[in-house]
Amino acid sequence: MATDNLSDELKSWIAARGRKYGFESCQITQARLPAPVGAGLDAFVDAGHHGEMRWLEETRQRRYTPQAMWDEAETAIIFGCNYGPDHNPLETLEHRQKANISVYARGRDYHEVLKGRLKQIASQLHAKSGWQVKIFVDTAPLMEKPLAARAGLGWQGKHTNLVSREFGSWLFLGTILTSGKLEPDRPEKDNCGSCTACLDICPTNAFPAPYKLDARRCISYLTIEFDGHIPLEFRAPMQNRVFGCDDCLAVCPWNKFAAASSDIKLASGDKTLPDLSVLLRFDDSEFRAFFSKTPVKRTGYLRFMRNVLIAAGNAGQPSLIPLITPYLEHVDARLRAMAVWALSCYMSKADLGELCSEEEADSQVIAEWQNALSQ
């Protein structure tokens, strides 16, 4: 009983530390995951659904359970930080002249913010208990969503993301693994029921079945992780999304219980929905300066401008033509190709043909010209 009381007291202390440092939720679970979680990861990778995210395949065995990564880990302390928007993100798709950026990426990079807070809590926990501690914020081979579900922060919905009774879809997760033992909290049950809203709204049909994602069809993957030429079938569905996609999160009925985040460091600030006409004028240094300290910066200038050109083609704004045209001569073939496609959304074949260069040598850009001029 004394041990149980000590565990309860320490858990209460940890939760209080979490609240002090801006975490609305704190739950405890064992630092291990059941075999079906690893089997699900294997099925995902073996089907090729991870696309170009080779690090998932290379580190899959370390992801099966936290103890595969750190064998001294006994307890996982999962913290949740609310980043709920103060508006419906689906409404931002209506502003076609704007660049739609996923809600989580409109403020400061949450990795940096949450890591700083977790370090404070972890160091204090180590001083108080003597336990060894390690912190994680979505940058290591740790299956944080299954751990959060086992800890009781929420459950993994049919879109594979975590859903919370209290915060809906809008939780950042941070984890402290420790060598000490604490009594685990109860897992949360799946509360999706018969709802399929998140599956039905996906503009690219990225869910082959409930609880299964094909990342190769996911706009978040395509705009952030994918490095190549975005296939034609996905460009119109991307609309004005230039970094990520919130559709399957935003449509979840559990969001009716969510409140807007009051965390100043994670608020969207003045980075919300920049004009495409502004972004098309950016060079690499201007891109880096504008998106400094935000998650957008990690995708890099070239991939980001590839996405911006697609958004420009979808914008229905002929005034963007003079800003798109210079990209026909860009050194990067992806940008030349997407400039061809974007201009084909506005110009006749005859006018577009006058811009075609006979010196183009890249096969994919040539194919883009051929397709545009044959429509």
Q: Mean pLDDT score, rounded?
A: 94
- Fraction of residues in β-strands: 5-15%
Q: What does the radius of gyration come to?
A: 23 Å
- Spell out the helices and strands N to C: HEHHHHEEHEHEEEHHHEHHHHHHHH
> What kind of sheet is the major sheet?
4 strands, antiparallel
How many β strands by DSSP?
A: 8
Q: Given the structure, what is the number of helices?
A: 18
Helix content: 40-55%
Strand order of the largest sheet: 1-2-7-4
Report the uncertain regions. none
Q: What's the number of domains?
A: 2
Per the principal axes of the C-alpha atoms, what is the gross shape? elongated
Distance between the termini: 76 Å
Global structural class: alpha+beta
List the helices and strands and how they pair.
Layout: H1 2-20, E1 25-30, H2 35-46, H3 54-58, H4 60-63, H5 66-69, E2 75-82, E3 100-101, H6 110-129, E4 133-136, H7 144-151, E5 155-156, E6 162-163, E7 171-178, H8 197-201, H9 219-224, H10 232-238, E8 241-243, H11 247-250, H12 276-279, H13 284-290, H14 301-314, H15 321-324, H16 333-344, H17 349-353, H18 363-374
Parallel strand pairs: 3-8
Antiparallel strand pairs: 1-2, 2-7, 4-7, 5-6
Helix pairs in contact: 14-16, 16-18
Which short descriptors sum up this protein?
four-stranded antiparallel sheet; alpha+beta; 375 residues
